[in-house]
Amino acid sequence: MPIVSISLNDEILSEIDKLQKTMGFSGRSEIIRAGIRNLVDEEKQKSDLFGRIHAILMVVHDEKSEQVVTGIKHNHEDLIGTHLHSKVDGNKCMELFLLHGDAEKISIMTKDFKTNRKMENVKLVAM
Which CATH architecture has domain 51-126? Predict the structure, then answer.
């Protein structure tokens, strides 16, 4: 099996150690493999979407990133039926987008958020 080296900051490493204890993983490598499998499965599911769909997109970010969120939001206005913004913890914000439109365009919007390092968490639920 090939070996891949990664660098993790102390905060992420601490979270991985907590997961190992609470979820019963045999080691850090197992957690990382499970995370990668989850990401691959999630992306496969999204790539299978086609036609017009309904979806909910959740984005968590630092309030300093509000301009980035606004820019992405304006680029995809045609998909957004409803947008909710809430301050959830200190300087963190959560955005909920209720989307309706072409699956490919919704995937692009999701990717725009996911690939931006200023976003802490991005989750799409599509139907």
Answer: 2-Layer Sandwich (3.30)
